[in-house]
Design brief:
- The protein is built from twelve helices and 78 strands.
- It is an alpha+beta fold.
- Among the domains are: 109 residues, Immunoglobulins (Immunoglobulin-like, Sandwich); 221 residues, Heat Shock Protein 90.
- The strands form 20 sheets. It has a six-stranded mixed sheet with strand order 64-65-71-70-67-68, with no helix packed on it. Strands 22, 23, 24, 25 and 26 form a five-stranded antiparallel sheet that branches. It has a five-stranded mixed sheet with strand order 73-75-76-78-77.
- The longest helix is centred in the C-terminal third of the chain and has 47 residues.
């Protein structure tokens, strides 16, 4: 019997070895994306594509861009049930049910709030018999909870947990698992299987099972059951009510998690302390179980404990352990990571790496050694660079260069070493300093220059090493020599296709002229951001591109410098991604430029100008990358503090076309907005005018594989191209009533958008957009137009009346200027000159008189005339009166230079009546001395002009007495007409004109004349 068992075991093991084993590669998930949950227990991806993580301190949701934590009740008084969370289930409405050690938590998706179902019997703290809870939702959406002390279900209407009493305590004792079948539930205990009709909530059938203590139960697509116990794995058919014959396999025990993949195979985990995973290929009659081997050094499986194993609807295998959350998407990892050790000591800050055929050379800090490692990065040998001259002197290797003869040149912190045929030689640029101060002996990057020379970066500048005579030539900064190094802190070297050496420093770019032995500086300037010129000139690395291009990394991102045209172009923003600080760079054979920055590792396609970013999500062990090289075998090699990562270029840059964009939530303010979905999958929202602001959230299914997903939106009908978004949501504000169709998309670039999601939003019009209101509004507007028309008609009538009055005042003003008395006097004076046989004066007087008449007639046709024209008319009038009165008075016109320069428009014939009064009433009656009239115009402020008419006549009082005695027949209305004109102007143009008349007296109180001041706005 023992012999037969051994034969069967050998046959089974040999069969297992022949089975193809699919590769599973796990990657970390969560912490690097901002997950702050404490002790995660289980994960679940809902029908919308959102990932939920139940942790000890809350329920976390991840949408591919951000985490959000929920831990409050509806009343916001108590937190989400904390502690051990066993399972997450989703009901038909998309709500979540979470089982934990305190009971059941219900999470309402619509209100984003919790309701806790508690029962003393289901509280782990008060009932030690509760080891765990298993929950299933039946076809009616009712949650059922299976425990070691009984079966319970949720009464949603009354919000209670009720116990099912349709069987005895003995029958339900040690009940462990529930599975939903077509018409009910299957309950698995240590000794029995029970089928429960969920409609009637009674037991329909019972089977005796002697299978041991169940650990997990699975039902495959054929309806068959696999039950894992402490005795083995049992496989049986189920006909809807009872189980068939049990086929057991004693080689698999204690399987505690079980989920199918897309091939209807099953990922299971067992022995939580050893953290193993197996894949079971299941059919109707056969059962195979090749085990996935894990690396003994893999930190994922060391001292880890499984808490949950889960396969989501995208066939992603999620693993929750004590060490964190991990996933495998079925794709090969883009990189293989190697943790570098020297025996039991981890490498510290890997400085240099060089691929040498099938092996590598590595160096790191604080060892005084460099290493030869194989293609799997296992250490083959260690070569010491300890000199023995001074025990305190270190010579830590930095960079490598493989010579044409196969020998190796190594730069160290204390000299240049040559490794040739297992012989190590050392060369120093200057004598060794016992104190170990920084000097030319501290070497960094090595660059070949021709066949016989090496350029080497040092802590003090550059050295040129001649391999033939083993001598160094030093180059350092010299402020008195403009052709020396302008900066001693060098970061990078490279030689272009013409053999010119290019140097990158913290202060700019240089090139070396070998004919003159001169260094020439090239300063980069960003005309749009002069403040950050220093960051732009902090050159970190140099790499040769195509033709005559040099690619530089700087404190401002990428720079492409053309060596022929001496021009450059900055790439600090690529596809809406801000490059920021860029460090090391290297080209692969496909023309992609790889560089590292603070975000991780970046790959830039210089021909199509597309960029990809890789971080821990993509499998890198750490976010910060220190070295980047291309291995010439389709791989890019990067290093961090103590890891070496080898990336497959084609796999890393593969497309994500198979992933879809899904709208998962719409909000208006803080409230959720629900949508309906038609048979074509288009979501639609029909709402009132009160909701005008919307925030539409969406995700990309590939967020677990791509961490640089970009998001876009388009408002159909008004936008032709996709508009980029910085987050995975689009905000719409102040939408008017109408129909809107919004498309959202996501992908690694705008050109790779192959699928998108849409939502239709219909906003009903506000009440004032109804037909009756529009009719009312039409009537109201019509009445308003009629009222406005009548008001306008009245305004036109008032304007016409004003124009008529203005014309009348103008006519009266003209009559005042051309009154018969004045005309008679003028003609009488002409006649007098003719009688005195003085034809010249008569002709002069007649010419001035005709000119005055013409000017008065012309001015009377205009409401405003230039100041110069008005003054010319006034001057002619004064000259006529002066000739008529035999030069009995003189006059003076003084005009402000500002007014002369601007020559503003003023009302015509405004000052003539006041001048006429001055002559007739003031100067004509003057008995002693010669009379004078002074006219002065000056600008007040920016918008006013002051007229002054001053005479030295007899004054208004004396003139009034004389007028009453001698001139009773003459009456002048000139000043009154002028005042009326000013009043009309004030009314028409909203002006503030004023007239002030002042009597002048001498010291003894005798009248000495009159002053008239008129202020009018310009």
């Amino acid at each position: 019997m023992k012999f037969i068992c051994v034969i069967l075991l050998v046959f089974q093991l040999s069969y297992l070895k022949a089975q193809p084993i699919r590769e599973i590669e796990f990657r970390p998930f969560g912490i690097e994306l901002g997950f702050t949950g404490q002790y995660p227990y289980c994960v679940y991806k809902d029908n919308r594509g959102l990932l939920w993580i139940a942790a000890e301190n809350g329920l976390y949701r991840y949408d591919g861009k951000n985490f959000k934590v929920y831990n409050k009740l509806v009343s916001n008084t108590n937190p989400f049930h904390t502690g051990f969370n066993y399972q997450i289930c989703e009901d038909p409405d998309g709500n979540l049910w979470i089982t934990n050690q305190n009971g059941i938590s219900f999470f309402n998706i619509k209100s984003e709030s919790f309701f806790n179902y508690t029962s003393p019997e289901l509280n782990y703290l008060s009932n030690e018999k509760i080891h765990f809870l298993t929950m299933e939702l039946d076809s009616y959406g009712t949650p059922w909870i299976c425990t070691a002390i009984g079966l319970y279900y949720i009464d949603k209407k009354n919000k209670q947990i009720l116990k099912s009493d349709s069987f005895s305590k003995k029958e339900i004792k040690n009940a462990r698992f529930l599975k939903v079948s077509k018409d009910g539930l299957v309950v698995i205990t240590n000794f029995k299987s029970l089928f429960i009709n969920t409609a009637t909530k009674v037991v329909a059938s019972k089977d005796n099972l002697i299978i041991g203590e169940p650990y997990s139960v699975n039902q495959d697509i054929c309806g068959n059951f696999q039950i894992s116990t402490d005795r083995g794995l049992y496989h049986t058919k189920f006909n809807g009510l009872t189980f068939g014959k049990m086929n057991s396999n004693v080689f698999l025990k204690n399987l505690n998690s079980w989920f199918p993949d897309n091939n209807q195979s099953y990922f299971v985990s067992w022995d939580m302390n050893r953290a193993k995973i197996a894949l079971i290929e299941s059919g109707d009659t056969s059962l195979y179980y090749p085990e996935y081997k894990t690396d003994e050094n893999d930190s994922l499986f060391q001292r880890s404990m499984f808490r949950n194993l889960y396969v989501d609807k995208h066939q992603i295998l999620w693993l929750v352990t004590l060490m964190g959350i991990y996933y495998s998407d079925g794709h090969p990892a883009i990189c293989k990571n190697y943790l570098m050790k020297d025996r039991d000591t981890l490498f510290r800050h890997i400085q240099g790496i060089l691929k040498d055929n099938s092996h590598y050379w590595l160096s790191h800090d604080a060892t005084n050694s460099f290493y030869e490692v194989d293609e799997n990065f296992h250490v083959l040998r260690k070569i010491s660079t300890k000199t023995g001259v001074n025990p305190l002197t270190t010579a830590n290797p930095r960079k490598f260069y493989k010579d044409t003869d196969g020998s190796l040149w190594i730069s160290t912190t204390n000299g240049l070493f040559h490794w040739n045929k297992n012989i190590l030689s050392r060369y120093l640029p200057e004598p060794e300093n016992p104190l170990g101060s920084i000097n030319f002996n501290s070497l960094r990057d090595i660059l070949p220059y021709g066949k016989d020379k090496l350029w080497i970066i040092t802590a003090r500048g550059l050295v040129l090493f001649d391999k033939n005579n083993k001598r160094f030539k030093k180059y350092k900064q010299n402020e008195q020599d403009q052709h020396s190094l302008f900066e001693s802190r060098i970061n990078a070297l490279n030689v272009d296709h013409k053999g010119t050496l290019w140097i990158g420093s913290i202060s700019g770019l240089m090139y070396y002229d070998s004919l003159t032995d001169h260094f020439n500086r090239i300063k980069l300037v960003d005309s749009q951001d002069l403040k950050n010129t220093a960051n732009l000139n902090d050159i970190k690395s140099i790499s040769k591109g195509s033709h005559s291009d040099l690619w530089l990394t700087s404190g401002r991102g990428l720079v492409c410098y053309n060596m022929d045209t001496r021009s450059y172009k900055m790439y600090n923003s690529i596809e809406d991604y801000t490059v920021n600080l860029a460090m090391k760079l290297a080209f692969d054979e496909l023309g992609n430029l790889w560089f590292n920055n603070l975000d991780g590792l970046c790959a830039y396609d210089t021909s199509q100008r597309k960029i990809r970013i890789f971080t821990k999500v993509n499998g890198l062990p750490l976010k910060i990358v220190e070295n980047v090289i291309y291995a010439n075998n389709g791989s890019v090699i990067v290093t961090d503090v103590n890891h070496v990562s080898v990336l497959n270029v084609k796999e890393a840059l593969s497309s994500n076309d198979e992933f879809k964009t899904n709208i998962y939530q719409v909000k208006s303010g803080d409230s959720l907005v629900l949508w309906n979905e038609n048979e074509n999958g288009i979501k639609s929202i029909h709402t009132s005018y009160k909701l005008r602001d919307f925030k539409i959230y969406f995700l990309n299914d590939g967020y677990f594989r791509f961490n640089n997903i970009r998001y876009f939106y388009k408002l159909e009908g008004s936008q032709l191209s996709w508009q980029p978004l910085s987050e995975n949501f689009v905000e719409l504000f102040n939408l008017r009533s109408g129909h809107y169709l919004i498309s959202v998309a996501s992908g690694v670039s705008k050109d790779k958008i192959v699928n998108w999601d849409q939502i239709s939003i219909v906003i009903d019009p506000i009440w004032y957009s109804s037909n009756w209101f529009q009719l009312f509004l039409l009537v109201f507007i019509s009445v308003g137009i009629m009222m406005i028309y009548r008001l306008r008609l009245k305004t036109l009538q008032r304007n016409a009346q004003y124009k008529h009055q203005m014309a009348e005042t103008k006519l009266e003003a003209m009559r005042a200027q051309m009154n018969p008395h004045f005309i008679f006097n003028c003609l009488n004076s002409i006649d007098n000159f003719i009688l005195k046989n003085d034809p010249l004066k008569a002709s002069e007087y007649l010419g001035k008189f005709s000119k005055l008449i013409r000017a008065i007639l012309n001015n009377s046709k205009q409401s405003l005339v230039p100041l110069s024209q008005e003054l010319e008319t006034l001057k002619i009038y004064l000259q006529l009166e002066q000739l008529r009165m035999n030069n009995a008075f003189s006059f003076e016109i003084d005009v402000d230079q500002l007014l002369i320069n601007h020559d503003p428009d003023i009302p015509p014939m405004l000052m003539q009546p006041y001048v006429e009064n001055a002559i007739i009433h003031g100067l004509r009656n003057k008995e002693k001395g010669k009379g004078w009239i002074k006219i002065k115009l000056e600008q007040i402020g920016f918008d006013k002009v002051l007229y002054k008419v001053e005479d030295n006549g007899v004054g208004r009082r004396q003139a009034g007495l004389l007028k009453s005695k001698n001139e009773k027949t003459h009456k002048s209305f000139g000043t009154e007409i002028t005042q009326n004109r000013l009043d009309l102007y004030n009314q028409k143009y909203a002006m503030n004109s004023s007239v002030t008349i002042t009597d002048l007296y001498d010291e003894r109180g005798k009248p000495t004349g009159t002053r008239v001041e008129v202020i009018i706005p310009l």
